[in-house]
Amino acid sequence: MKKNLCILAFGLIVTLPLFAQKKVDDRLEKSTTAMQAILQSDKGLPTSILDHAHCVLIFPSVKKVAIGIGGSYGRGELVCRKGSDMAGSWGAPAMYALDQGSLGVQLGSTATDFVLVVMRHGGVEQILNGKTKLGGNAAAAAGPTGAQATGYNADAMKVDVLTYSRSKGLFAGVSLEGASMDADRDANKALYGKEITAQEIISGSVPAPAAAQSLISLLDNTSGSRK
């Protein structure tokens, strides 16, 4: 009996990290699909906006289930441009979590892909320094599309984060006002194989893992260096 318990315990020790790694890999794959869809949509994220971005936060399939007032949760990642001025090519992702107490009026259950475009360095600092609330310590607004996106000036508008979304299912209004974001430490450990902070990842202290290459290539091919 004792031997069997030891075998079971050893099996869990071996398989749990692999399971966590698979979940993170799946998240990155879904984020790549969501980013591609939002970039290709007529009402999605324009390249002219992405060209001026410092970072993007991608949260695929954010879940919210309610009739009336409800909550939401999502898991995704932060990807920033390389360099101290964040004007280079796109770097390794830091895994992030999104939580929100309520989304106002809701009907049924939905899954929404969100892309949050961080336009100003102050917004990046807020996100990296700990739990960030959209509309609170990070000014957020719905992202412009079409002709409105041409010549958009985030500094003049005093907006840190522009939000874009793609919904699936029955819904009535989608907003991220009041949503909070923070680093997903367990997912970062699963992806990089060690305890590591979001700041360390974004600073370029670790190479991008293989699972992130498709997402980084998509961003680089769509919008390369700002220099």
Please characterize this protein's 3D structure:
There is one protein chain. With 227 residues, the chain is an alpha+beta fold. The chain has one domain (22-222). The protein is 34% helix and 24% strand. The chain has 7 helices and 8 strands, in the order ααββββαββαββααα. Strands 5-8-3-2-1-4-7-6 form an 8-stranded mixed sheet. α4 links the parallel β6 (140-142) and β7. α1 packs across α5. The longest helix has 39 residues, at 2-40. The N and C termini lie far apart (64 Å). Residues 4-14 and 103-107 have low confidence and may be disordered.
Secondary structure tally, helices = 7
Radius of gyration: 18 Å
Number of domains: 1
Please state the average pLDDT score: 82
The biggest beta sheet is recorded as: 8 strands, mixed
In total, how many beta strands?
Answer: 8
What strand order characterises the main sheet? 5-8-3-2-1-4-7-6
Low-confidence runs (pLDDT<50, min 5 residues)? 4-14, 103-107
User: Roughly what fraction of the amino acids lie in strands?
Assistant: 15-25%
The helix/strand order is HHEEEEHEEHEEHHH
State the distance separating the first and last CA atoms.
64 Å
What is the percent of helical residues? 25-40%
* Global outline: globular
Structural class: alpha+beta
Which properties best describe this structure?
single chain, 227 residues, alpha+beta, eight-stranded mixed β-sheet, 7 helices, 8 strands, 24% strand
Overview in brief:
The protein is an alpha+beta fold and 227 residues long.
